[in-house]
């Protein structure tokens, strides 16, 4: 059973905040969550001199907290225990990471605008530095979740994501599907038959699926799809699968075993985050990785 002791929701005082707060309420209504922290960091260094001259010594933190309080009051009714935290620090991602550790946050919710509205730079930094699982909610996403897709590459991280997806699906009555994107060594064509290579690849992968099902009986009945990359990246194939079959949630595991923070996120999750996907993306770390 999935239970979350503490959840953090990152707000930026834009029009997506209302959707994030309402989505958080929906999560609280479906999963046992003890407490939610609605957070915002004011980067005073980015305030213009005109702002300072116009508003003088205004207590900006108090004003921001009042604004968030109004949004929470309107869109979080019926949610769970919550607290609003407003900080004034020069580095947003560092203070958010500190909050995750201080309040033992298990899940952070981030909003994401389409690429024509935002570079997504802060979101990418947060994904790389936050020591917890992250749920990315695009501005075009909806709250209705019925079909879940979990891509796997048979790594420990992807198997962890798959088991979490299965638990979530069983808990909420969702339809879960697995996909695996495989690539062929095309540089050896036509020295070897492409058809034989495809059949052999499928045979090997299906053998790995059977072995996985033996080790984790709970996923034995979950349907899976094999997709050939065929000149596209793994992330591109996953994105095409999402659009073709209209899933409502994408769950992926994060390895986090690289000592370089800028590389710990992984290329596929990074590429998917930077795409204009209109469904929530849940990027999960295992407890062992976080520790």
Automatic annotation (TrEMBL):
* UniProt superkingdom: Bacteria
**Domain UspA, residue spans:** 145-270
Name the protein family: Belongs to the universal stress protein A family.
| Protein name (database record) | Universal stress protein
Protein source organism:
Pontibacter rugosus
């Amino acid at each position: 059973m999935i239970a979350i002791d503490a959840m953090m929701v990152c707000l930026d005082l834009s029009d997506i905040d209302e959707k994030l707060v309402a989505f958080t309420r929906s999560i609280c209504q479906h999963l046992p969550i003890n407490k939610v922290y609605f957070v915002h960091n004011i980067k005073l260094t980015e305030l213009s001199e005109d702002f300072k001259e116009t508003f003088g010594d205004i207590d900006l933190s108090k004003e921001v907290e009042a604004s968030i309080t109004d949004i929470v009051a309107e869109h979080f009714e019926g949610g769970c225990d919550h607290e609003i935290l407003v900080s004034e620090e020069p580095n947003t991602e560092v203070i958010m990471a500190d909050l995750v550790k201080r309040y033992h946050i298990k899940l952070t919710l981030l909003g994401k605008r389409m690429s024509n509205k935002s570079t997504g730079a802060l979101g990418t930094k947060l994904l790389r530095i936050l020591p917890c699982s992250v749920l990315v909610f695009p501005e075009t996403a909806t709250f209705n979740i019925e079909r879940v897709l979990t891509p796997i590459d048979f790594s420990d991280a992807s198997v962890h994501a798959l088991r979490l997806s299965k638990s979530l699906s069983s808990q909420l009555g969702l339809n879960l599907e697995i996909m695996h994107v495989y690539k062929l060594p095309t540089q050896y064509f036509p020295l070897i038959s492409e058809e034989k290579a495809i059949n052999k690849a499928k045979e090997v992968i299906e053998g790995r699926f059977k072995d996985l099902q033996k080790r984790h009986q709970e996923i034995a009945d979950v349907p899976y799809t094999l997709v050939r990359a065929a000149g596209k990246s793994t992330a591109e194939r996953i994105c095409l699968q999402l659009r073709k079959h209209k899933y409502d949630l994408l769950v992926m595991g994060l390895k986090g075993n690289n000592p370089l923070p800028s590389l710990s996120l992984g290329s596929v999750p990074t590429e998917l985050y930077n795409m204009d996907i209109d469904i929530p993306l849940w990027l999960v770390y295992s407890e062992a990785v976080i520790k």
